[in-house]
Each structure stands twice: as C-alpha cells, then as structure tokens.
Amino acid sequence: MTETNYHAAMKRALGLAALGQGRTGSNPVVGSVILDNTGAIISEGFHAGGDHAEVVAIKKAAQIPADATIVVTLEPCNHTGKTGPCTEVIIAAGIKRVVFAVNDPNPVAAGGQDRLRAAGVEVIAGVMQEEARFVNRAWLTMIEKKRPLFIWKVAATLDGKTAALDGSSKWITGPQAREYVTQLRRQSDAIVVGTGTVLADNPELVPHDGLAQKNPLRVVVGQRELGADLHIFDEQAELLLWKSHDLHGLGSHLGELGVKQVLVEAGAVLGTALVNAGLIDEVILIQAPKLLGAGTSFIGDLGITTLAGARELNLIGTQQLGNDSALHLQLLPKAEK
What is the Cα–Cα distance from 72 to 60, expressed in whole angstroms? Predict the structure, then answer.
C-alpha cells in the first residue's frame, strides 16, 4: 500500500468526521476508514455521540482481513470514559496498521499510539495533520485554550450595513443564505447574542430544519431586562443569561460546560467587544448585493487609527448562496506593537 492510498483514505475520513459536527457534545469529531491490503475501503464510520469512529467502522465491517489498515483523523484513545479504549478494540480486531492525522492533546486520553506499538501494531502518524486540525479546530481550541471556538456570523449589504437608517434589517439576505445559517446553528453548541439583538429582533436562535439532535444553548449577554414573552424563554433550547461584561469569564464558563463551538449572531456592540477581547476566531460574512450607503455598520470602533494597524484576516473559503455570497475568514491575532 502507498502513501497515496493513505491520503485518499484520510481525505474520506475527514469528510466523515465533519458529519459529526454538532453531534458529539464536548468530544472531538472523528472519522475512520478501514482498508484492505490493496487500499480498497472495506468499512468506515464517524463519531456521532455514541461509539467512537474506529469502533463504528470495526463493528460495520463484515470481515476484517489479517493485513487490514485503519485510517483515523485523531490518535485512537487509550482510556475508559463513556466507552472503552479504542486501542483495545483495534488490537482485538487484529488490525495490523493504524494511520492517524493528529496526536490527541488531551492528557486523559493520550498514549494510544504507544499502546498500539507495544501490541505490535504498526503506527503512522501525522498524515494530513493540518487538514485534520482544521476539521477538529473547535475541540482543539477547547483543549488548548480552555474555551470554545467563537465564529461571528454577519449578514450585511455589500457596503457592510446590517440595518437601514430606519432600523429595518429583515431580510438582508435571501432564503439560501438563511438555510446556510440554519446549518451553522446545527453545527454549533451555543449561539451568542446581546440583549440589544433580543430586544430588536426577538430571535428564536434555533436551527429550523429539525435535524439537530439537541438545539444549541442560547446565550444572551447583557444587563438589560428582557420580557418573559420573548422567544429565548421558550422550551426549544436551554438558555444562559450572562449578565456581565466579563467576556473572558463567559468563554471560560462555556468551556467548563463542554461547549466547543459558539456561533455569534450579535450586532456591532457585542461583536466588536468580542473582537477587542481577542475572542473571535473566525468571521463568516454573508453579503447581499445591496447598497445602503448609510445605516448600521456590522462592526464598531476597534481603536485603529492607521492602515498599518488594520486587523488582518485569512480567507478560509467562499460559498455562493443564491444571489448572496459567504466569506469564511480566520481573524488573525492582533499584531504586536
């Protein structure tokens, strides 16, 4: 079997891992593929909140040949939690080779590759590591920074306005963009807004396609009083009222709750505050081909007075949504002076 076989299988495993987004709670998303000695796929699986990906693939296999290889996006775990160690399942299945992308940084679960080698299993690590880190970036952020990944979703006109001068803002983008936002909500563990957004729009903050196993936690930040008849108080999802300006404390608290990925649907006030606090990791800017010229800008004062001080973003990807377009961007850390 060649390195090309491993990369092709890992690419498939990464696609499977992504199917678990929003379904694994505080655990990582993981995909797994089992190959025979010709490189053909004989079974596959992904983690969706129950068995780990390796176990799913092994259970699905009608037969595992003696020289099989399992390709996994994350180092197989070596601890007993809700399930037993994946290393022991792999060894018991007689699999002779394990190819994985990312070392498990969680000290509780690490050590899988050492256990496998000790049992005589060949281990190849680091295949498509960067791609796998990206797919699992929310979980890795929680492990490494002790807080969730924060993604700020903004719907705006081409000139960056989220509302007209009269306050009207519904709907700036079209139906395909709204379907895309539903998908983003379903893939997230929490949705964050400010009290201003709740009072202005009375949002439900839930995915509307009925596909979510559990609707994301609603998080409302601010100290303004909210009427009990607002949608956020209904029973569609749990609610956290964060009546504090301590945004770092919010990030830490959400991390303690096991929240991996936060979708920020806030307006300019809270969104700008999160940027200034260094908590926004990514921005998804959904642009409608409209011009207002005046109105509410999606972001406020960042304290930048020169072009040299501009915040930089890396383009992750683009997507056409009917007549609208979405830019997915990584917000780079603030440059040191």
Answer: 15
- Length, in residues, of the chain: 337
Higher pLDDT, 108 or 251: 251
* 258-271: average pLDDT: 96
Q: What is the mean pLDDT of residues 95-111?
A: 88
Separation CA 46–CA 53 (nearest Å): 4
What sign has the CA pseudo-torsion 257, 20, 232, 237? negative
pLDDT band at 311 (very low <50, low <70, confident <90, very high): very high
Query: Pick the catalytic residue: 3, 44, 54, 131?
Result: 54
Quick check: 31 and 73 in contact, CB under 8 A? yes
SS3 state at 232: helix
In the chain, where does DSSP find H-type helix?
3-18, 53-60, 86-92, 112-118, 129-135, 137-145, 175-186, 195-201, 247-256, 268-276
- What pLDDT score was predicted for residue 336? 66
- Annotated catalytic residue 204: no
Q: Which two tokens stand for residue 242?
A: 């964060």
* Whether the predicted model's global pTM rises above the 0.85 cut: yes
Residue 231 has pLDDT above 80, yes or no: yes
Q: How many CB atoms lie within 10 A of CB 132?
A: 26
Q: Does the pLDDT value for residue 164 go beyond 90?
A: no
**Alpha-carbon span 68 to 97, nearest angstrom:** 7
